[in-house]
Design goal:
Elements (H helix, E strand, L loop, with lengths): L1 E5 L12 E6 L11 H7 E3 L12 E11 L5 E6 L3 E4 L2 E4 H9 L6 E7 L7 E7 L1
Antiparallel strand pairs: 1-2, 2-4, 3-4, 4-5, 6-7, 8-9
């Protein structure tokens, strides 16, 4: 498995500069099941592999914001999208908001992962009737 830290134009970034983690190599999935649009967005042709050495090689754009420390470790800095991680599950806050907005009694909705309360982080929805 390979990992590259890149800017939004897939240019490699030096040590200490934050960017998106992109994964590739043997064992990378082919895409999302029955989600061709999302597969095309997240699984992209690998610009770092010579075309003759691994035809069809792809990278997975994780959406994770990371930077490489001087000792080679990766430091996780957050997400580039509206996904959050709760109890080991990745949650798309926008999907919850859209489900809430499907109710005609709800005019506006926003969902957050609150970490400022005692105990573990909690998903909280704010609604406007």
């Amino acid at each position: 498995m390979t990992g590259h830290i890149c800017d939004q134009h897939l240019r490699l970034l030096p040590v200490g500069i934050p960017g998106e983690l992109n994964l590739g190599g043997v064992g990378l999935a082919c895409g999302y099941l029955d989600r061709p649009g999302l597969t095309g967005e997240r699984f992209i042709p690998d610009p770092f592999t010579a075309s003759g050495s691994a035809p069809g090689a792809r990278l997975y754009r994780t959406g994770d914001l990371v930077r490489r420390a001087a000792d080679g470790r990766l430091e996780f800095l957050g997400r580039l999208d509206h996904q959050v991680k709760q109890r080991g599950f990745r949650i798309e806050l926008g999907e919850i908001e859209n489900a809430l907005l499907a109710f005609e009694q709800i005019r506006e909705a926003i969902v957050l992962l609150r970490k400022d309360m005692p105990g573990p982080p909690q998903l909280v929805a704010y609604l406007t009737p």
